[in-house]
Amino acid sequence: MIVTIIGPGLIGGSIAIGLRESGFSARVIGVDNNPAHAARAVELGLVDEVRPLEEAVQKSRIIVVATPVDSLTKLLPHILNIIDNEKVVLDVGSTKTPILAAVENHPNRARFVATHPMAGTEYSGPEAAIPGLFAGKCCVFTDIEKSAPDALGICHQLYAALGMRITTLGGNDHDLHVAYVSHISHIASFALALTVLEKEKDEDRIFELASGGFQSTVRLAKSSPETWIPIFRQNRDNVLDVLDEFINTVSRFRTLLIKKDFGKFEELIRHANDIRRIIDPK
Predict the structure, then answer these.
(1) Is the separation of the CB atoms in 195 and 155 below 8 Å?
(2) Domain 174-279: what homologous superfamily?
(3) For 33-56, what is each residue's pLDDT tens digit?
(4) Which residues pair with 3 in a beta bridge?
(5) Longest alpha-carbon distance in the chain
(6) Which CATH architecture has domain 2-169?
(7) Which residues pair with 6 in a beta bridge?
(8) 3-state DSSP assignment of residue 114
(9) How far apart are CA 27 and CA 44, in angstroms?
(10) Is the pTM of this model over 0.70?
């Protein structure tokens, strides 16, 4: 199958690499409104060529839309306007409710599959694309009852070629859960980085003392605002709800330190250790 990747950056470019390496696609066409990114995607071999949107869509069986989520609410309806009933359109956005609403009543809605491959790094752009990014990771399909069975089948094949596990959720449930497991993690990392930069003015000392734990905690603070501001904007209500709970928990730790109640502090840490049972059951 010929696949078009709209936005061959970290996610789109890594999908292109995986589909090529697995033999799923013999030809990948790129679409990017940034000429430098487009040229780099070809140079790196992520895509075979770059074409204008309409031309790329017409040449492809599968269209993967991997642009920032704010653009999806306008871009997806436009793509659905110019496809036929043989094509499949899927997005990889980290939010779903606004995107699903934008295509809800479109005549070609059944040709669209809303997906979210739960994988990534703190880097962006074509240079960030890497092999094996998705292997063993989870991909969420949302509102699958709105998609045609053959379109769903092709998307299952695509993500199987990338080595991903598939789960399904409603759009609202997806946005709530990713606020907990992804979006709040980025806010916490941004906040910690800002705190250190504000309090520690000796940059050489930060570099010298930064251990693996610190680096892993602030890794996400290197993420692009062009990617994350649209996500926070679209999932604002859920992120606010999670952020309130996070602030309350941090305040509890602060109060225990003020009171020198290290017994309760230990109790909370041991309770936090229980997260291991969920994310690392082995």
Answers:
(1) no
(2) 6-phosphogluconate dehydrogenase C-terminal like domain (1.10.3660.10)
(3) 999 999 999 999 999 999 999 999
(4) 28, 62
(5) 67
(6) 3-Layer(aba) Sandwich (3.40)
(7) 31, 65
(8) strand
(9) 15
(10) yes
